[in-house]
Design goal:
- The chain is globular.
- Helix 7 packs parallel to helix 8 and helix 8 runs parallel beside helix 10.
- It is about 30% helix and about 20% strand.
- The strands form three sheets. Strands 1, 2, 3, 4, 5, 16, 17, 18 and 19 form a nine-stranded mixed β-sheet that branches.
- It starts with a strand and ends in a 24-residue tail after the last strand.
- With about 475 residues, it is an alpha/beta fold.
- It has 13 helices and 19 strands.
- The structure holds zinc ion (ZN).
- Zinc ion binds next to loops.
C-alpha cells in the first residue's frame, strides 16, 4: 500500500492551524502528529509552507454545449487546470437537451468525464423542463448519487428557464428527498426587455452586456428564490452571487435561520465593471456580469462576515475565436470565463495575504463549506484521520503571474494576465497521489473517481446545523 508523509508543515483546517506531520496510507489520512518518523514511499518536506484540504470547486462547465459552441476545456484539460490551482474535487453540471431524460443525460456526462478526469468528480442535474416533466426523475437521479439540482430563472430564449411554478415544484420535490436546489437567479423579464431595447437602438457592443443585466435583475430574483425556499422549507443555494443587493437578502435570510447558501466566484472578487470599457471586454462577458466596485467589496464583506460560504469558479471558458462570434452583437458572445485554477490563489492572495480573512476562513470557503453543502464531508473538505488524503501545499511567499502560459486552461489568453499572486499552491495531492508539483502535472487522465452522494439526513444541510 503506497504511503506518503508530509512533514513540518502548518496544517490548517476550518477551525485550527498547527504544526504537524501527516501520514497517508492507500489514499486515506491515517495519522496526524507533531512528529511522525515511520518510513514512507514518499516524504515531502513542507517546512515554511501551509497544508490545507484540497479545494472543492462545486461549479464547473467542462465540455458544455452553449450558445452554438462548446466550452473550451473538456474534463481532461479542465481538471488539469483545476488540479494545478489546488482543486481536488469538482462538481459539474449535467445539462439534458430539451426533452431528453435526466438519466440519459447523466450517462452522457459520465461517459464524457470518467475516461478523462484527473481528480474526483460529482455532478449536479439541471432541471429545464416545465410542467409535469419538471419533477419526474428527481428521485431516481438522487438514488444515482446526484443530490443537487440546478434551475435557471432566466435564459427563456435558450429554453433553459424554469417558470416560477415549476421552481416551486422542484424545490418541494428536491427538499423532500434530501437534496439541494441551486439557482441561477436573475430576473428574465428585466433582461429580455433591456436586450430588446438595446437591439432596437443598435446598442450591440460588449459594454451593453452589463447594462442589460443590472443589479436589480439579480436582487429581485434572489429575493424571490429566498421567499420560495422559505415557503417550501427547501435548502437553497444561490450560485455566482454578484451584487450587494443579493448578498443582503441572503444575509438577512440566514439571520432568520433559513438554510440559504451563497456562492460567489473569483472574478467577482477581483474585477469590476470598468473592464467592459476595455478593448478585450468580450473576454469578461459572463452572466451575471461584473458589477460595481461597491458590489465587489460587498461580496468580500460577505466572505469576511461568513454569509457567502463558498467559492465556485463557474468555469466556462471560450477561446478568442469563440468570443469573436459576438463581435457585432453582444448577445451572441458565448458567456463565461475560466476560473477553476485561480480560486485558491485568488482567495489566498486577496483574502489571507491581504489580511481580510484568517487561514481558517480560507479553508472554509475553498473546501470545507462546499464539502458540507454537497454532503461530501468529512470524506472531503478537511484534514483528519479517515478523510481522503486530498491536500494542497501552499507556499505563502510564492509570487506567480497568472499569464496564459502559466495557467493550464485550454484557451489562448488569461483574464488574469497582469495579476501577481502572493502565495501559490506548489503541490496538489489527491487521495495520497502527488498530482501536481511546481505547476507541473504528474498524473494520468481517468484517475479521478466519481463521488456518489447521499441525501441529507435531516431537513437542513450540515452547514446550517
Ligand atoms: Zn454556471
Amino acid at each position: 500500500m503506497p504511503t506518503l508523509l508530509v512533514k513540518n508543515g502548518i496544517v490548517a483546517t476550518a477551525s485550527e492551524a498547527f504544526q504537524a506531520d501527516i501520514q497517508a496510507v492507500d489514499g486515506v489520512i491515517t495519522k496526524i502528529a507533531s512528529s511522525i518518523d515511520e518510513p514512507a514511499d514518499r516524504v515531502v518536506n513542507a517546512e515554511g509552507k501551509i497544508v490545507v484540504p484540497g479545494g472543492i470547486d462545486g461549479h464547473t462547465h467542462f465540455e458544455m454545449p452553449s450558445m452554438g459552441t462548446t466550452t473550451a476545456d473538456d474534463f481532461k484539460t479542465g481538471t488539469i487546470s483545476a488540479a494545478a490551482g489546488g482543486i481536488t474535487s469538482i462538481l459539474d453540471f449535467v445539462l439534458p437537451q430539451r426533452g431528453e431524460s435526466m438519466r440519459a443525460a447523466l450517462q452522457k456526462w459520465q461517459d464524457k468525464a470518467s475516461p478523462k478526469v484527473l481528480i474526483d468528480y460529482g455532478f449536479h442535474m439541471t432541471c429545464r423542463e416545465n410542467g409535469d416533466e419538471a419533477v419526474k426523475e428527481i428521485k431516481e437521479v438522487i438514488a444515482a448519487g446526484v443530490t443537487s439540482f440546478k434551475a435557471y430563472t432566466t435564459y427563456r430564449s435558450q429554453g433553459l428557464m424554469l417558470e416560477d411554478g415549476a421552481i416551486l415544484a422542484v424545490m418541494k420535490e428536491v427538499s423532500s428527498n434530501g437534496g439541494l436546489l441551486a439557482v441561477h437567479a436573475e430576473n428574465n423579464g428585466i433582461i429580455e426587455h433591456n436586450i430588446e431595447t438595446f437591439k432596437k437602438e443598435g446598442k450591440l457592443s460588449a459594454d451593453y452586456h452589463p447594462l442589460a443585466k443590472p443589479p436589480i435583475a439579480e436582487g429581485e430574483a434572489v429575493q424571490r428564490m429566498i421567499l420560495f425556499a422559505k415557503s417550501t422549507g427547501a435548502n437553497l443555494y444561490i450560485v455566482h452571487l454578484s451584487t450587494r443587493m443579493g448578498r443582503e437578502f441572503v444575509r438577512d435570510a440566514q439571520k432568520g435561520g433559513w438554510p440559504i447558501f451563497a456562492e460567489t466566484c473569483p472574478h467577482y472578487l477581483v474585477f469590476n465593471d470598468l473592464v467592459y470599457k476595455r478593448s478585450d471586454a468580450p473576454r469578461f462577458v459572463m452572466s451575471p456580469p461584473l458589477k460595481s466596485e461597491e458590489d465587489r467589496l460587498a461580496l468580500w464583506d460577505g466572505i469576511i462576515e461568513g454569509d457567502i460560504r463558498t467559492i465556485g469558479s463557474d468555469h466556462a471558458d471560450f477561446s478568442s475565436e469563440q468570443k469573436e462570434m459576438g463581435k457585432d452583437d453582444f448577445t451572441l458572445i458565448p458567456n463565461g470565463v475560466p476560473g477553476t485554477e485561480v480560486i485558491m490563489p485568488v482567495l489566498f492572495t486577496e483574502g489571507f495575504s491581504k489580511k481580510r480573512i484568517s487561514i481558517n476562513r480560507f479553508v472554509q470557503v475553498t473546501s470545507t463549506n462546499a464539502a458540507k453543502a454537497y454532503n461530501l464531508y468529512p470524506r472531503k473538505g478537511t484534514i483528519a484521520v479517515g478523510s481522503d488524503a486530498d491536500m494542497v501545499i501552499i507556499d505563502p511567499s510564492y509570487k506567480a503571474r497568472l499569464t496564459a502560459d502559466f495557467l493550464h486552461a485550454k484557451i489562448d489568453y488569461s483574464i488574469y494576465e497582469n495579476y501577481v499572486t502572493e502565495g501559490y499552491p506548489i503541490m496538489t495531492i489527491s487521495r495520497g497521489d502527488i498530482i501536481v508539483e511546481e505547476n507541473q502535472l504528474v498524473a494520468t487522465e481517468g484517475r479521478g473517481r466519481f463521488l456518489p452522494r447521499k441525501p441529507y439526513l435531516s431537513n437542513k444541510s450540515p452547514l446550517f446545523q
